[in-house]
Amino acid sequence: MLRKMFLLVVLVFFTLLSIPAGAKDAEKADFIDNRLSLEDQIKMENVMKNLAKEDRENVLFIDLDGSILANRLELIEEFKKRNSDLLGKDGKLIRWFTTQTDTPEKEISSATTGEISMDDADAPAVITSAPSWGWNHPANELPNIKSGPYRRISSTTGFSCLTAQIYLPDKYSGEAFVNTDNAKGDTLHIYSGANTSAGKVDAGLLLNYTSETWGMFINPNPDDNPNVGWAQPKDLGNFKMGTTVDFKYYTPCDNQFALAVSGVDKYGNPSNHTAVVNVPESYEFRSDGVGMQVKRVTSIAQTFDHQDLTTGSFLRNAKWANVKIGTSLGSVVLMTNNTTSSADSGGFKGENVLVNYTDPANEKVWIKCGVIPYSDYGDVNGDCQVSPVDSTYVLLYESGQTPLEDWQKLLGDVNGDSEITSADATLIMQYWAGTIDVFPVQTSSKQGMGDPKQTTVFGSIVAGQVTGKAGDLVQLPITGENISGLAGGMFKLVYDPSIAIPQSVEFGPLLEGFLTAANLDHCAEGNIILVFASGTGISGTGELARITFELVAEGETDLALTEVRVNGVEGYDTTISGENGKIITEPK
C-alpha cells in the first residue's frame, strides 16, 4: 500500500512539471516558462535578474553564438517565425558574433541603420537658436556613409544608458512614406545604441511599412562596411503607429546591452518587450559607462553603396522627448549641452534633415530622401502633393477651426512672413494652377511674385444694418465696395450675443470660385470669423457674404468689423477699411 502511494505521489509530481504554466503565473513579471530546460531556466534567471522589474515581462535573450532564449516559449517561436531567413539549420542566428560561416536560405540585406561609428571628440555641443516654427537644418554636417540620410545626437563618453519617450509617426497622418517602387531598400528607423573605440551596436525601432507597425530591431555591428552581412533581428516587439512609447537602452552588466520598449500594439493592447544581447569582451561595453557613448538616431536606411537621396521616402514628426542618460536606469538625468558631443551630433545630408530643436533632451526630426523643406512647401496636409485641399487647411487654421502641427505651419508659410493666412492659401492655389512655379519663401529675397510693400488691394468691406423683432431671423449683408485686386482675406465680426446670434453664413456672388470658411464655434461668445482665398484677383462691388441672425432680445448691437486683413495675387497681407454695421431689435 505504501509503495502504491509513493508511486502515485511521484507520478503527480512529474505530471505537474510537464503542465505548461497557467495564465495567472504567465502574467507575473518574473515569469520563466517551465517548459524550458532546467539549464535554460537558470540562464534566463541570470539574464533577468539584472533587468529593471518592469522590463521582465517578455524577455528575449541572444547569446554570443546566436542562440535564442526567452522567458516564454511563445517568444522563441515567434522570433524564429519572423526571422527565419536569419537562422541556420541549428536554429541559431547566422553571421552573429561567433557564427560567421553559416549561410542563410536567402541573402541578408546589406542596408545599414544609417550612421557610423563616432569620433572620440567630447567637446560639449553648441546649439544654434531656432528659426520660425522651430525648424532648421542641422548646423553640423555628418559624414556620408553611402546608406541614406540620418540625424544623430551623441553623448560625451562615460554613459551606458539612455531613456526617452518616442513618438512613432503614422503613415496615414502624412508622417511617414516609403517609396517601395525603388530598389534602394528604404527603411525608416528611430533608435539608440552605444559606441566604444572597440565596438558599437544599434538597437531601436523600424517601420514595417506594409504591416503598419513599428518593430524592435537589433544591429550587432553597424560596421563602416556593412557588406559583411551581419544578421539584424527584427520584430522583437511591435507597436502602433501614431503612439508614444517608453524607450530604454541600457547595459545591465558588462559585455551586454538591453533594449526595452513599452507601449501599445497595433490593436491597442499593452505591449512590453525586452531584448537582451551578449556582446564580446572586445567591445569593452561596461555598465559603468567608462569609454562609452550613447546616441539617438533617426534615419532612412538604404542598401549600402546604393544610396539615392531622391527616392522621396520621408519620416516626419519623429519626436524624442525627455531624453535622459546615465550609467544605470536609476542614475539617468536629462541630456544637456555639457553631456552632448558636438563633433558627433548633426545630420547627413543637411538639406535632407530638418530638426525642431527645443534642447538636448527634446527634439522633433523630419528626414527625407529629397531636399526639404523646399520641395514640400504648400503640402500642408502631407499627402505629397500641392492642391486646393492644402489651401483649405490654411483657411480652416486661420479661422480657428483646425489646428496645425509645427511642420504643417512650416509648409503652409509659403510667403515666408511667419504667419499662416489667406495670403498663403492664395499662393498655394496659384502654384496648383501653374501660374507660379516657385513660392516666395523659396527665393533668397522671399519676394517671389512681388514686394509686400507693393501689394495693391483697394476698396472697403461694409457690414449692413437690419431691423426686426425678437424671434425673427434676419439676413445681414457684408459687401465689398469698389474692390480692386482682392485675392483673399479674413475678418472677424463682433456683436452682442444677448441681442442677436448668427445661425448660418452664405458666401456671396463676389466670392464665386473662392475657397471659403466660416467659424461659428464662438457665436455665443459674440464673434464669428470669415476667411476666403483664390488664385486670381477680383474687382467690383458686390456681396461678400450674407449672415443669418436670430434676434433674441429687444435692443441694438453694433456689428464691428475687426482684424480685417486682405491680400492680392502677390501673396502678402495688407489692410483695407471696414465699415461697421448694426442690428436693431424692436419691441413686438
Automatic annotation (TrEMBL):
<dbReference type="GO" id="GO:0000272">
    <property type="term" value="P:polysaccharide catabolic process"/>
</dbReference>
<dbReference type="InterPro" id="IPR016134">
    <property type="entry name" value="Dockerin_dom"/>
</dbReference>
<dbReference type="InterPro" id="IPR038682">
    <property type="entry name" value="YrpD-like_sf"/>
</dbReference>
<dbReference type="Pfam" id="PF00404">
    <property type="entry name" value="Dockerin_1"/>
</dbReference>
<feature type="domain" description="Dockerin">
    <location>
        <begin position="373"/>
        <end position="441"/>
    </location>
</feature>
<dbReference type="InterPro" id="IPR002102">
    <property type="entry name" value="Cohesin_dom"/>
</dbReference>
<dbReference type="Pfam" id="PF00963">
    <property type="entry name" value="Cohesin"/>
</dbReference>
<dbReference type="GO" id="GO:0004553">
    <property type="term" value="F:hydrolase activity, hydrolyzing O-glycosyl compounds"/>
</dbReference>
<dbReference type="InterPro" id="IPR008965">
    <property type="entry name" value="CBM2/CBM3_carb-bd_dom_sf"/>
</dbReference>
<feature type="signal peptide">
    <location>
        <begin position="1"/>
        <end position="23"/>
    </location>
</feature>
<dbReference type="InterPro" id="IPR002105">
    <property type="entry name" value="Dockerin_1_rpt"/>
</dbReference>
<dbReference type="GO" id="GO:0030246">
    <property type="term" value="F:carbohydrate binding"/>
</dbReference>
<protein>
    <recommendedName>
        <fullName>Dockerin domain-containing protein</fullName>
    </recommendedName>
</protein>
<keyword id="KW-0732">Signal</keyword>
<dbReference type="InterPro" id="IPR036439">
    <property type="entry name" value="Dockerin_dom_sf"/>
</dbReference>
